[in-house]
Design goal:
The chain has 2 domains: 212 residues, MFS general substrate transporter like domains (Growth Hormone, Chain: A), CATH 1.20.1250.20; 235 residues, Growth Hormone, Chain: A (Up-down Bundle), CATH 1.20.1250. It is 67% helix and 2% strand. A hairpin with a 5-residue loop joins strand 2 and strand 3. Helix 4 packs across helix 14. The two termini are 44 Å apart.
């Protein structure tokens, strides 16, 4: 047992890996094993690469850091533009739009809510399509739908129903960027590199997400409520072009022996025998991979005789033009209906429920605050216009950005240090220590918001919103990193289901929050919210202690086979 994490008898747990070479344990079996594995370079030379990269130059794990980060940056830009901006365009102007559309505050809030509902509804279909046909087509389709939705919004005039249709198109377009970016991180980066990318993405999601209300509030006040959509149209058109040129397909069918973090029975032992298996089974493996059907997503392999009776595979590195292809073949021959139900079957995993419970609930209440600002500070006696209401979001931007920047520099390093102290063995539950700080900031922030809304101090409300921004950043980073490392083989399904549930919660917030605030004191409401957030974050304790055993049980029982979801194929 390391750091309070209960061991799982004599079984290996998926996700548990020998990560760091430890000079004190050079004689141990695992340290002996690690000598034969691929390691990092430079300052990371003592770190074992998990998963192990193949020899194919088209394997995303083998791409250069600058290429990986450029692809990741473009996806983050897409996530910011498509997921965060649409609702930010109207958040600061909600009170003003009640007059323009002659609708109630709840109806105007629904313009944001239905975007979130569309994201949640579209996410399971994105899961199926991305698993089967890759992620690049989903990103491009998402950007295209966002353009269509914005065009509809710009041509609506003051017709509420048409404007709502445009908003729904924007939401459907955002589904891919909301739900599969964590899978891209798992596709391209090794375990010791993922935390910093999750932190960067959360800067985009939790901090930069609040810049649109600030900017659009100023534009709405000075130029009118439609002008933010006109500027948005320019930027998403550029984003669509950048997505086409720079977002590569990251789905890749890698031989199972390289995924040393997935198989509980071999996740430490197999790396030692990778070379042996490749040598002993070279002829069989190459005959299977070359003449029959080359794995989709790799370079085109050529079977070449090496004069020993064996067949060696030489991979051709894809050109830049080949990477521009929208269609890259089929990555999974499984029946699409089965893939759809697998998304919901993963909800039986307590880790999935934990991810939704922690990140989903706390973020949904954070989103709900966006519907409260105009209601509290828009009418007299404050009478704040769209511009000044937008400024109130700056607190969460600052708080969330500070936390994410600190996490960027410290999170992965802390995990490597913990693994070193644990005799070189890394446990995904080590990612959950960050939840302690999320609990502290979350309780202080939400409780403070309740008092600020009740006693009418916009400045203190913005300061408390900064604490909430810190909490949701920490919770999202911790939960996201844990799921990627503990259940990398099913991250698509888990994050898709989490995105669906989270956006359903967001939609509920848009429908009830304004009525709730009107019916009760904000102080009492946010006391309830604080209690819910506290309980959800405290659920980290059993997940941390029993998480390793849960990984073993989940792998042993294989719920997909028991539900007959692993044997339906198109073949």
């Amino acid at each position: 047992m390391g750091f309070g994490i209960l061991d799982a008898a004599d079984e290996r747990a998926p996700g548990t890996v020998y990560l760091v070479e430890n000079e004190r344990d050079q004689e141990s079996h695992d340290a002996h094993v690690s000598v034969r594995l691929k390691h990092g370079t430079g300052k990371s030379a003592h770190i074992i690469l998990v998963p192990q990269p193949s020899d194919d130059p088209n394997d995303p794990l083998n791409w250069g850091h600058w290429r990986k980060d450029w692809i990741f940056l473009n996806i983050c830009i897409g996530a910011s533009m498509l997921v965060n901006v649409p609702n930010g365009l109207i958040k600061a102007a909600i009170y003003q739009l009640t007059t323009i559309f002659d609708r109630s505050l709840t109806d105007i809030a629904a313009l944001a809510g239905y975007v979130l509902l569309a994201i949640g509804s579209g996410a399971p279909f994105v899961a199926v399509l991305s698993k089967k046909y890759g992620k690049r087509p989903q990103f491009l389709l998402a950007s295209f739908l966002a353009i269509i939705g914005t065009i509809i919004c710009l041509t609506t005039g003051t017709n509420y129903d048409v404007f709502l249709i445009g908003r729904i198109f924007q939401g459907i377009g955002a589904a891919a960027y909301e739900s599969i970016i964590f899978n891209v991180i798992g596709d391209m980066y090794f375990v010791h590199e993922r935390g910093i990318r999750v932190a960067v993405f959360n800067i985009v999601q939790a901090s930069v997400a609040l810049l649109p209300p600030i900017i659009s509030g100023v534009i709405t006040t000075n130029q009118g409520w439609l002008w933010p959509f006109k500027y948005y149209m320019i930027f998403i058109s550029i984003q669509f072009l950048m997505a086409f040129l720079f977002i590569r397909e990251t789905s890749y069918k890698r031989a199972a022996i390289f995924d040393i973090d997935l198989d509980g029975e071999r996740n430490i032992d197999t790396p030692a025998t990778v070379e042996e298996k490749q040598a002993n089974n070279k002829e069989e493996a190459h005959v299977e991979s070359a003449p029959k059907s080359p794995p989709t997503g790799r370079g085109d392999p050529d079977p070449v005789s090496v004069g020993t009776g064996q067949i060696s595979t030489i991979y051709r590195k894809k050109t830049w033009w080949q990477h521009l292809r929208i269609w890259n073949g089929t990555f999974d021959r499984t029946n699409p209906v089965k893939l759809f139900f697998v998304v919901f079957a993963c909800g039986l995993n307590p880790a999935t429920i934990y991810s939704i419970f922690v990140a989903g609930i706390i973020v949904s209440f954070w989103v709900g605050c966006g519907f409260v600002w105009p209601q509290v500070y828009g009418p007299p006696p404050y009478s704040l216009d769209s511009k000044h209401i937008g400024y109130l979001y700056s607190g969460s931007v600052i708080g969330g950005t500070i936390v994410c920047l600190l996490s960027t520099f410290l999170y992965d390093r802390a995990m490597v240090s913990l693994a070193r102290w644990n005799k070189g063995v890394y446990e995904p539950e080590m990612r959950l220590w960050i939840m302690v700080f999320a609990l502290i900031f979350g309780i202080a922030g939400f409780l403070g918001l309740g008092f600020s809304f009740t006693y009418g101090n916009p400045t203190s409300a913005a300061a408390c919103y900064a604490l909430v921004g810190m909490a949701i950043s920490l919770a999202s980073i911790g939960a996201g990193s844990y799921i990627i490392d503990a259940y990398r083989g099913m991250t698509t399904e888990i994050f898709i289901l989490a995105a669906t549930c989270k956006n359903m919660l967001y939609f509920m917030q848009s429908k009830i929050m304004n009525k709730w605030i009107a019916a009760m004191s904000p102080r009492d409401i946010y006391a309830i919210v604080t209690a819910i957030v506290g309980v959800s974050l405290l659920s980290t304790i059993p997940m941390y202690i029993y998480g390793k055993r849960l990984r073993v049980v989940w792998a042993r029982w294989n719920i997909y086979e028991r539900l007959h979801l692993s044997d339906i194929s198109l073949d």
